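Protein 1 of 2
SEQ + STRUCT:
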Amino acid sequence: MKAVVFESEENGATYNEDFKRPEAPDDFVEISMKASALNKRDDFILKGLYPGLRPNVVLGSDGCGIYEGRPVVFDPGINWGENPDYQSPDYHILGMPQHGTFCEKVSVPGTNIYTKPSHLDFTQAAALPLAGLTAYRALFTRAGLEAGQKVLISGGGGGVALFCIQFAIASGARVFSTTGSKDKQDRLLKMGLEGVVNYNEKSWDKDFSSEFGQVDVVIDSAGGDGFHRLINLLNPGGTLVTYGGTLGKSDNISPQVIFWKQLNIKGSTMGSPQDFIDMLQFVEQHQIVPVIERVFPLSDFDRAVARLRSKDHFGKIVLTIS
């Protein structure tokens, strides 16, 4: 079958038109893929920054396809476990070490399959699972976001961040963001945000505070040197949820700020099966459509990755699978 297969840290991944379809575990079922979407996770794997890398594994976590004659999406997380508060030691995600979705046929547990939201086409639905699940859990399960609260979502323009923005607006929250360019600022404001600041400005946090005040919730995926600034922007009793660390560690965090303001700092990774169900219901209820940056055929995987890595991309990168 046609597939994008990881070879090694040195060689990355290649498009293979004759990859031998792997055998699936007994409790897995096969889905005929229509489209799949890239995530930063795929880029981390290609750069050798992901643990447990194995050769000859089909990449990709997101996707949409056909199962028993009906259009479906599926939860890309395997073996979450019994506790809804955190994943089990056996939890893993399609696309490494399990074969993933950049291919014509993918095998997933039958319990992970759900009917595709009817208002989304295959391309739009393929962009939803991983990023949508991550955003939903961070916003609602972990942060407990409520209507009327002020929420700051860093890095507006990325896949998960845009879902956070769409979900937060739909929930009735007051939504703000940071981003790295004037073009993205304009596009975010058109989506209905109350305010957007450029994180490349030296005093962006002070500019934000003076114009918009402090916020009740912060959702962040970057970490790094700006992490402490986000903490400082929280109201007393506020909550910060982090779901990523693309900029690495932060050495400037003040415990005094955290304990004196009675702050909540929480981590969030992917989501439980119930989170996935709740996310799909929320998307259908509010008729949310993922923001798609660009669509490529599976054979143009290299171009799709290049676009994902570009600083000016805005939204999800999707691969179509014939």
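Protein 2 of 2
SEQ + STRUCT:
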Amino acid sequence: MNLKDRLVADMKDAMKAKQEGKLRLSVIRMARASIKNAEIDKKRELSEEEVIEVLAREVKMRRDSIEEYVKANRQDVVDQLNEEIRILMPYLPEQLSETEIRSLVQEALQATGAQGPREMGKVMGYLMPKVKGKADGKLVNQIVKEALG
């Protein structure tokens, strides 16, 4: 079952759950709408990888929003955003651990021959296609900065 079919099936389950599935239903509907908008923009059906990219972008938007709401001292919104992220995460590939990311960074440093912070773009260009959808870009960026530091 592909990801889009899984979203439809989970949306039906959330509808049947009535009140308990209300947040889950709205998050799944939002994810499906984002996928549909991306398909309209590209004028074709998205591949499985592109669907994962859309879902990863949705999770990233929520993580970025959490930082702002923490600064604004809005714990209620932070809790809801965390719950939305928790609902979306099962649709993404298993996330890489920090140790796995560090080993990929070392591999990228050897492959690119990067020496200092000025060559960060070269390392990120090599690394990002390998971790796309599997790791948070900010974390990858931070680990590369440490390694090149």
